[in-house]
Amino acid sequence: MSKEREKNDFERSINRLEKLVDNMESGEASLEQNLSWFEEGMDLIRLCQSHLTDAEQRVQRLIKKNDHGFEIQEIE
């Protein structure tokens, strides 16, 4: 997948998650609809986590490749 497409997919997923949260917070939907949105949201979260993991791995490879005194540190 191209970097531009990954960026678009990630951004689209984040935007959809925000819309789902807004919908659920409105309090106007049925329980069944909220459950459906929740399930969709969980799928989107997994997708976003995958994109972030991939991005982190690419950054770590670039740092290792560059190896000009940079050090990889765990973020707490």
Question: Could you describe the 3D structure shown?
Answer:
- The chain has helices at residues 3-26, 31-66.
- Helix 1 packs antiparallel against helix 2 (31-66).
- With 76 residues, it is mostly helical.
- It is elongated and about 55 Å long.
- The model has no long low-confidence stretch (mean pLDDT 86).
- The protein starts with a helix and ends in a 10-residue tail after the last helix.
- The chain has a domain at 1-37.
- It is built from 2 helices and no strands.
- The longest helix is centred in the middle third of the chain and has 36 residues, at 31-66.
Ordered list of secondary-structure elements with their pairings:
Blueprint (H helix, E strand, L loop, with lengths): L2 H24 L4 H36 L10
Helix pairs in contact: 1-2
Tell the overall outline: elongated
Specify Rg, calculated over alpha carbons: 17 Å
What is the oligomeric state here? single chain
> Stretches where pLDDT falls below 50 for ≥5 residues?
none
Biggest β-sheet description: none
| Portion in strands | under 5%
Short description:
The protein starts with a helix and ends in a 10-residue tail after the last helix. It has two helices and no strands.
Task: Record keyword descriptors for this entry.
mainly alpha; single chain; 0% strand; 76 residues; elongated
